[in-house]
Amino acid sequence: MPASTIDEVLDRLDDLIGSARHRSSRRGYFPALYRKVTASVKQGIHDGIFDDGERMERLDVAFANRYLEAVEVDERGEAPTHSWQVAFEAADTWRPIVLQHLLLGMNAHINLDLGIAAAVAAPGAELQSLHDDFNRINGVLASLVDGVREGLSRVWPALRLLDRLAGDKEDRIINFSMTRARDKAWQHAQRLAPLTEAERRAQIESLDGWVSDFGRLVQRPGFKARMITLWIRLRERGSVPEIIDLLR
């Protein structure tokens, strides 16, 4: 059953995080980060930083339900969207570094889910009035992601070398740009908002193909970046539960 309030979303994320810690599953990395985002949005609504707090809660819940539904579908042994399937499958493998796990979740959730959630929360002509708050929620996302990346770099200093050493465009695909992702998500929302349900499904299927392809590049970038991430992976320290706690 979909969540209907931000508090329900937080409870569901706590359940996922607790289960992942118990199983020492890397699937707990993304919800650990995402819970911080959701809690910050809740606080922002409370503090009145958004133009329309009620609408922002609708957006945040619709956004979160895209992820929660993907998890439930996957746990039933069915196929979620291709974008989330790439992220979930990577979480069950050894090779990706922590940052790649987070980027794969962000790719599916922002590049695919955010535009869909915005079109659901503010359909048709209502969408334009959402634009300022849409940028504000992305500001929350960006600040937290930057903070986590800096925190990971303090724990594993080798991460600081990744951007410097991976110079080619193909290698630098791992550098997830929040600004570009935000702009893309808004463009997708603009395309989806005026469509009928059937038209929207077709558009989402096409978008899912592009986002999943990008996810595969994040998981397996150019040769130079693969060698660097392998070097970083061999030097990562801490158990999976400890890393989940760090991300929280």
Description:
With 248 residues, the chain is mainly alpha-helical. It has one domain (6-247). Helix content is 74%, strand content 0%. The longest helix is centred in the middle third of the chain and has 25 residues, at 131-155. It is globular. The two termini are 25 Å apart. The model is unreliable at 169-173 (pLDDT under 50).
Please, what is the average pLDDT? 88
Distance between the termini: 25 Å
Number of DSSP strands?
0
Write the H/E string, N to C: HHHHHHHHHHH
Strand content: under 5%
Largest sheet: none
Uncertain runs:
169-173
Number of folding domains?
1
Query: What class, by secondary structure content?
Result: mainly alpha
Write down the overall geometry.
globular
Instruction: Estimate the helix proportion, in percent.
Output: over 70%
Gyration radius from CA atoms, angstroms: 17 Å
- Count the DSSP helices: 11
Short account of what is shown:
The protein has 11 helices and no strands.
Key attributes of the depicted protein:
single chain, 248 residues, mainly alpha, 11 helices
Mind sketching the topology for me?
Layout: H1 6-23, H2 29-47, H3 53-75, H4 82-91, H5 98-121, H6 131-155, H7 160-165, H8 178-192, H9 197-219, H10 223-235, H11 240-247
Helix pairs in contact: 1-2, 1-3, 1-11, 2-3, 2-6, 3-5, 4-5, 4-9, 5-8, 5-9, 6-8
